[in-house]
Predict the structure.
Amino acid sequence: MLALSLALAGTALAETDRVTPVQEDYARNCQGCHRADGMGAFGSVPRLRGFVGLFTQLPEGRDYLIRVPGVVWAMLDDERLTRLMNWLLATYSPEELAPDFRPYSVDEIRRARKRPLADVQQVRARLIVELQRRGLVPPGEDGLVSARRAE
């Protein structure tokens, strides 16, 4: 009976510890800065959780997300990167997605990678102002100030 219990416990543990390929891609390419919980780093790395989907509310914001250096230079092929970006939005910010959001396509990712953003901070600041103007982001919020480690 003890052997059966140990075998079942080992099976349950193995099943709960399974990591999907897209989760592994996130861990290897994004988690180092944005953290496993998607909360970023206060003042320097934007949070993903409950925030990143807001950019999809703006056409330029949707484009911005797939043209930032961490995305365009990720060491993933276009198909894996497409899966990762769609998973990231659905996992960390589903409530903030534009009502008409459509998942990124491989062609869209491929085209974006040919046009990396040179002025990331300026574009992001302009997008934040527009999100604030539309009432989607409160004044003073930019995804950086809220990137605090949960105490």
User: Anything to note?
Assistant: The radius of gyration is 18 Å. The chain has one domain: 20-133.
